[in-house]
Specification:
The protein is 28% helix and 6% strand. Strand 3 and strand 4 form a beta hairpin. By secondary structure, the chain is mainly alpha-helical.
């Protein structure tokens, strides 16, 4: 609903920081703790990332992505910090995380921006095996 609304939202004050929006795992989150399940995000993290915004909106529509950006929901797969946060933020590996796509994207960004620095949200020994199966 909120992603498809054409009405302006007043995003000043406490609203952006309050945990009132449901994530895929049914936790209540603030906008900046969530990711929009765009086709590119789903390619990297699978269909059931625990911090995807729970929505029925068509997340491939530019208008939905624009509104999500206004709200502070992240989905930029060309931003290394977004990829690292989405990959290492959740406490455990989720079942739909498969393959090497996220690491390949980070490698490509690093090759293009060698001086780039990112902060890892938590120390986790999270890597895929050669078959793309992730483990902690």
């Amino acid at each position: 609903m909120m992603l498809e609304s054409e009405k302006p939202w007043n995003l000043e004050g406490e609203l952006p920081r309050i945990r009132w929006i449901y994530a895929e795992n049914d936790d209540l989150c603030s906008f900046d703790e969530l990711y929009l399940p765009t086709p590119d995000m789903v390619k990297l993290f699978g269909r059931r990332h625990p911090r995807y915004l729970k929505t029925d909106a068509d997340c491939s529509k530019p208008s939905v992505m624009e509104r999500a950006s206004e709200l502070g929901v992240r989905f930029d797969v060309e931003d290394a910090q977004t990829i690292v946060d989405a990959l290492y933020g959740p406490e455990s590996v989720w079942p739909s995380l498969k393959g090497h796509h996220a690491l390949n994207s980070l490698k490509q960004i690093q090759d293009e921006q060698p001086a780039m620095l990112v902060e890892v949200p938590a120390r986790r020994n999270r890597l895929p095996d050669r078959d793309g199966v992730w483990e902690d």
